[in-house]
Amino acid sequence: MEGEKMKCEIIPERCIACGLCQTIAPEIFDYTDDGLVLFVGEKEATHEFIPTKQQDAVIQAAKRCPSHAILYQNS
């Protein structure tokens, strides 16, 4: 996956605040005061390009998200 761009989308409306994504990829995912997913340092963003070194963790977080609130695609 080296050199490929990955775009990640979060869908807070689907989030059930289980905490898995932040446990798996704490450099990328954080939570609102209500426990809903957001990007670290980007409270309003729903899309973000993921640095290469974090892509595997984002993929694992998306695969393990029980509510499918995290989507990703390589370009």
Automatic annotation (TrEMBL):
SUPFAM superfamilies tied to this protein: 4Fe-4S ferredoxins
Molecular functions (GO terms): 4 iron, 4 sulfur cluster binding; electron transfer activity; iron ion binding
Domain of life of the organism encoding this protein: Bacteria
UniProt cross-references to InterPro entries, sorted A to Z: 3Fe4S_ferredoxin (IPR001080), 4Fe4S_Fe-S-bd (IPR017896), ET_Ferredoxin (IPR052395)
UniProt domain 4Fe-4S ferredoxin-type: residue ranges: 6-34
Stretches that traverse the bilayer: none
Cofactor(s) of this protein: [4Fe-4S] cluster
UniProtKB keywords: 4Fe-4S, Electron transport, Iron, Iron-sulfur, Metal-binding, Transport
Entries under PANTHER family matching the protein: FERREDOXIN
Physiological role: Ferredoxins are iron-sulfur proteins that transfer electrons in a wide variety of metabolic reactions.
Protein name, entry field: Ferredoxin
Organism: Enterococcus devriesei
